[in-house]
Amino acid sequence: MEEKADKDKINLNTREAKGMLFQEYIYQSYTIPPAAQAEKYTRMHVEEIAQRGKILRDLHFSKEDTQRRIEMEIAWEYELSQLPLFYKQIKEIIDRLYAGRW
Would the pLDDT of 85 be above 70? Predict the structure, then answer.
C-alpha cells in the first residue's frame, strides 16, 4: 500500500514539475525586455512599409507617390497619438526600394 502511495506521489511531482517548466517557458517568452520589444516593433513596421512600397512600385506608382501614400497611411493610423519613430525612415526605405537595394 505504501509503495502505491509513493508511486502516485512521484507521478504527481513529475506532473507539477512539467507544469512549472511550461509556465516558466510561457513566462520567459512573454517577458521580452522593453528595448527588444521596441526593436521588434520597429522592424515589423519597416518590413510592412517595404511590402507596401513593393506593391505600389509593382503597380507602377512613382517614387514620390509611393512615399506620399505610405506617409499618409501611417499618419492616419497614428492620428490619435504621436507619429512613431519609424515614420522618419519612410523616405529612406522607399529610396532603397526604388534603387533596387531592398
Answer: yes
Q: What is the pTM of this model?
A: 0.64
Q: Indicate whether 65 and 15 sit together in one domain.
A: no
What is the distance of C-alpha 67 from the center of its chain? Answer: 22
Contacts of 29-34 spanning 24+ positions with Cβ under 8 A: none
Average of per-residue pLDDT across 80-90: 92
Query: CA-to-CA distance for 21 and 99, rounded, in angstroms?
Result: 49
Range of the domain at 72: 33-102
**Exposed, middle or buried by CB within 10 Å (0-12, 13-18, 19+), for 82?**
exposed
Percentage with pLDDT > 70 across the chain:
68
Question: Average pLDDT of 24-35?
Answer: 66
Contact 24, 64 (CB under 8 A): no
Dig out the grid coordinates for 74 from the structure: 501611417
Residues 21 and 70 in one domain: no
